[in-house]
């Protein structure tokens, strides 16, 4: 494909074929960049990578209680950043940051997903853990990793959900 460059000394007529070609090239490169970003930041891939690095290397497999602890750590992984953003409010003088809204929505979504069944790698299977540790992070080879759906114990998740619903922001 012919490379198009912008030249300051040459004016292009808006309805010309050259302008249409330039617009098409620009839109295509923009679309490819968006696709590349979307491809890199897939939520399931990020979740599996998090569990891959969070699991202790010395353990051949995890127990159910360790898995629940890992899930709680996963759901609360952004709490420090959330607390920092909340401390910037200065007693209600500043509005919420967009990042703060996004982190709160993400946490609520993950809690709801945990209540209905959170899909994580099968950490109780030693063969699956070996495959997980050898995984290079490529989404194409994700099908080799066996995933399981972990549902929260009722008493634990209800208290967490109530705690999230009781968060009230004081405006002065």
List the main descriptive attributes of the protein structure presented here.
172 residues; mainly alpha; two-stranded antiparallel sheet; 7 helices; 2 strands; flat
Helix content: 55-70%
Going by helix content, strand content and strand pairing, the class is mainly alpha
Largest sheet geometry: 2 strands, antiparallel
Number of helices: 7
The secondary-structure element order is HHHHHEHEH
**Oligomer description:** single chain
Distance between the termini: 60 Å
Strand order, largest beta sheet: 1-2
Count of beta strands: 2
Broad shape: flat
Radius of gyration, whole Å: 23 Å
Strand portion: under 5%
Unreliable runs: 168-172
Mean pLDDT: 81
What would you note in describing this structure?
Helices cover 56% and strands 5% of the residues. The protein has 172 residues and is mainly alpha-helical. It has a two-stranded antiparallel sheet with strand order 1-2. Helix 4 (79-87) packs antiparallel against helix 5.
Concise structural overview:
With 172 residues, this protein is mostly helical. The protein has 7 helices and 2 strands, in the order H-H-H-H-H-E-H-E-H. The chain is flat, with a radius of gyration of 23 Å.
């Amino acid at each position: 494909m012919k490379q198009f460059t912008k030249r300051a000394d040459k004016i292009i007529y808006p309805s010309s074929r050259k302008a249409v070609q330039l617009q098409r090239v620009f839109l295509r490169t923009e679309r490819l960049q968006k696709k590349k970003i979307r491809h890199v930041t897939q939520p399931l891939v990020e979740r599996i990578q998090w569990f891959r690095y969070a699991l202790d290397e010395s353990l051949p497999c995890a127990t159910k209680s360790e898995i629940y602890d890992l899930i709680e750590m996963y759901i609360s992984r952004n709490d420090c950043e959330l607390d920092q953003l909340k401390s910037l409010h200065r007693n209600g003088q500043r509005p919420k940051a967009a990042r703060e809204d996004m982190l709160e929505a993400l946490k609520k979504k993950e809690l709801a997903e945990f209540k209905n069944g959170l899909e994580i790698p099968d950490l109780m299977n030693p063969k699956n853990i070996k495959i997980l540790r050898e995984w290079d992070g490529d989404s194409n080879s994700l099908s080799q990793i066996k995933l399981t759906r972990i549902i929260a114990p009722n008493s634990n998740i209800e208290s967490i959900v109530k705690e999230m619903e009781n968060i009230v922001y004081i405006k002065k």
